[in-house]
Amino acid sequence: MFSEVQQLSMGYIVYMEDGIKLKLLEADELKKFIGGLFCGMAIMVLTAAAVSEEVRARLTPVYVNFHLGGESHAISSDESKILNHKGSLYVPLRSFANEMGGSVYYTPPTSGDRAKVDIYYEDDRDLTLQDEDGYVKLGNLDVQFALDDEMPVISGTIKVEKTIPKNKDVVIAILDGSGETLGVSSALKPNKPLHVPLSQLQPGEMIQFRNYFPYMATPEDYKLQVKLADNEDWYYDQGYVGSVTGAGGFNGFPLNAALGFSPFKPGEPIPFIVTLLNRSEEDTVVTTKPLQLLVEITDSEGKVIRTLATKPFKGEVQWRHGMMQTELIWDLKDEFGNKVPKGDYYFSILENETEGYMKGNPDKSMTFKLEWSMQGTGMFTVE
Fold it and tell me: Pseudo-torsion of CA 246, 252, 257, 260, nearest 10°?
């Protein structure tokens, strides 16, 4: 039985009481999805109905067969529920897409928005870039170099061929004509669905990605190389060069520290994202002394509850708001191991300093001071 029907601009999403979710596509979308498949079954769109209206349907024991490129595919009602509503059969979208080599992702509704279903389908002939060990294939790549306020971006499609180890990231290196590395992207993450590590995707699944890489002029000759890299305590990402400075932004130059959160649910441990940012418009910073950043957590009365420390960092921080980031998990306990009560808590990155040099002038040693700034402070509520 259907529990809810929601109309979108391009079709309808149907919710089932047993958890099945279908998106019935317009004919032109379906044609694009299956890459020219001529399917003998009719894909019908439900007529408009109020969300509160109850619709009854029968489960029908039937095999759905479809044929493409001389190969036959089937969806069995023993495994997938085929619905019969007013003489029309409704086939589970995920089962159909998976048989076609596509991937379906459901995004739950958020405040002020509706649920979404995304379908990705690519011909392997479009996936032309592959790592040497055959874990992933990439295609439909778009590379946008930048030296101004635009962001340097690589986007495209990635297909998982083998399960990616949890201790590995997938990155794209940009090489010049002689094979020298000009820059390496941030670890590839799905554009949709959000916040899902590639290591959780199954072989055969495909997603869209959109990732940043360091600022650089467009090379005369370059090529891309996809590879798996070991997870590191500190990892690269790219900030926007138009970020605010001074009051409400950062203090100090060129290195600054900022603090944010990864998504978390109320009552769960809080994942802080600690960022080391290079605001220099001229050069990359190279630190030679290990730097450990401290995050101090206080209660509403200013009492220090807990101090967390990052793993030490030493190495390059890319110019023009290149970022090195790491994660700190607060288990909602104080320094004695007791769980803190509900209420408001405040966090702040403590001032610190490190030593190093600017990459273009390695013979000149410098002390880099990380001053207090509003980007390194904030408040959250423990519920």
Answer: -10
